[in-house]
Amino acid sequence: MRTRKSARAGQYAALLAYLAFLALPFLWLVSTAFKPPRELVGLHPTWIPQDPTLVNFRQAFDEQPLLRAALNSLLAAFSAAVVAVVLATPMAYVMARRRTALTRVASGWVVVSQAFPFVLLIIPLFLVLKNLRLIDSVPGLVMVYVVWALPFALWMLTGYVRAVPAELEEAAAVDGAGRLRILVSVTAPLLAPGIAATALFAFVTAWNEFFFALVLLKTPEKQTLPVVLTHFIGAEGVADLGPLAAAAFLATLPSLVVFAIIQRRITSGMLAGAVKN
């Protein structure tokens, strides 16, 4: 009994240490965003600002076009999420309901594709977009985000489809409904929570993405928010710390809100279909 309690205490201690490891950078970011310039250069930094101010936020909006960059990120992320879900839903249905050699190979490819680093993908994607004349365009960036989000969307939605009882679809087929009608009228409403979670996850992934946007977008008016944040760092590598922290804090808020909403949905999507009826 003592061994079990000690092991549990050790697990909780490790969890708390991990949470602190994740939370401390964000707390320091928030603290820095509200510190006046004299506290940012102080020899004895503090966690809590002694004289909180909003001057960093005003300066951030004055120095860089944050609203325009946020709108570009919103357009790219929302479009990528919608397209990824529209493509992934029927594909996930086929992969979940038809157990053939082709679907097994496709499932394996979905898992393997997640191990590919960005560097291996950017060159072929760049060449494809160049031939399509979509370099330095938001639609081209959306295509890249869809390609990147589609494997995970398929994986999540396949689990949700498998959790839907096949007997409901069989009953609809007996009543004369075709495959498309069954998918639209029977399966899709039951998949609504999974579709929402998948769309929101694809949105957050595209919202936070930096590497593809940096390589593909060159016109300042088309750059996304993560790329614009790098403009707060000067040519000599010296960061304008206060405005940078304020802008980064604002850019982080949408991701935190969305993850707080969908974290339970994501967990259930990963576990869906693991238990057979």
TrEMBL record:
<feature type="domain" description="ABC transmembrane type-1">
    <location>
        <begin position="70"/>
        <end position="262"/>
    </location>
</feature>
<feature type="transmembrane region" description="Helical">
    <location>
        <begin position="182"/>
        <end position="207"/>
    </location>
</feature>
<dbReference type="Pfam" id="PF00528">
    <property type="entry name" value="BPD_transp_1"/>
</dbReference>
<comment type="similarity">
    <text>Belongs to the binding-protein-dependent transport system permease family.</text>
</comment>
<dbReference type="InterPro" id="IPR035906">
    <property type="entry name" value="MetI-like_sf"/>
</dbReference>
<dbReference type="InterPro" id="IPR000515">
    <property type="entry name" value="MetI-like"/>
</dbReference>
<keyword id="KW-0813">Transport</keyword>
<dbReference type="InterPro" id="IPR050901">
    <property type="entry name" value="BP-dep_ABC_trans_perm"/>
</dbReference>
<feature type="transmembrane region" description="Helical">
    <location>
        <begin position="12"/>
        <end position="30"/>
    </location>
</feature>
<keyword id="KW-1003">Cell membrane</keyword>
<feature type="transmembrane region" description="Helical">
    <location>
        <begin position="141"/>
        <end position="161"/>
    </location>
</feature>
<keyword id="KW-0472">Membrane</keyword>
<protein>
    <submittedName>
        <fullName>Carbohydrate ABC transporter permease</fullName>
    </submittedName>
</protein>
<feature type="transmembrane region" description="Helical">
    <location>
        <begin position="244"/>
        <end position="262"/>
    </location>
</feature>
<feature type="transmembrane region" description="Helical">
    <location>
        <begin position="108"/>
        <end position="129"/>
    </location>
</feature>
<keyword id="KW-1133">Transmembrane helix</keyword>
<feature type="transmembrane region" description="Helical">
    <location>
        <begin position="74"/>
        <end position="96"/>
    </location>
</feature>
<keyword id="KW-0812">Transmembrane</keyword>
